[in-house]
């Protein structure tokens, strides 16, 4: 009989060890003649089962695969695991949506800040020429942001300062991010 090592399931016996024949190599037995659920014949290392054999060992000392001896066990396990990915996805979906919502909200904040800077420069340019700075300021921003825009001007000596305040839109009702405020100063040209 061939030498059998540990690692085949923890008990020191290989699948089909009682009816195994020596193969002439140390550590190898022919599995499948009397093993549990053995379907195939051929050489397999003790502890690392080949497809079609009993599948008792995993090649690690003291560990064994449970429930791999019969074909019916694999079908039951496969049927039991079906739908698991869908359940995990449903559990992860709220987190994914929250991250996407936060990314879009940050984009809106950055866009509104950029629009406030544009409005402040347009208002300051118009005020430096003694033009309608409030209307020019509102015209410089996107139409959907124009309603929440205010551009007061302060004239002091040889320069004009316009502070544009554009209300940041919120995707979540009830959350108020306040306005984006930018200031631009230009010399008076009139």
Structure write-up:
It comes from Streptomyces levis. Residues 1-11 have a biased composition (Basic and acidic residues). The chain crosses the membrane at residues 85-111. The chain is α+β, with helices and mostly antiparallel strands and 190 residues long. The chain has 2 domains: 1-74, no CATH class; 84-187, no CATH class. 33% of the residues lie in helices and 17% in strands. The protein has 3 helices and 6 strands. The chain has helices at 71-81, 84-128, 133-139; strands at residues 28-31, 42-45, 149-150, 153-156, 159-167, 179-187. Strands 3, 4, 5 and 6 form a 4-stranded antiparallel β-sheet that branches. A two-stranded antiparallel ribbon has the order 1-2. The radius of gyration is 38 Å and the shape is rod-shaped. The termini are far apart.
State the main characteristics.
alpha+beta, membrane, rod-shaped, 190 residues, two-stranded antiparallel sheet, 2 domains, 6 strands, 33% helix, four-stranded antiparallel β-sheet
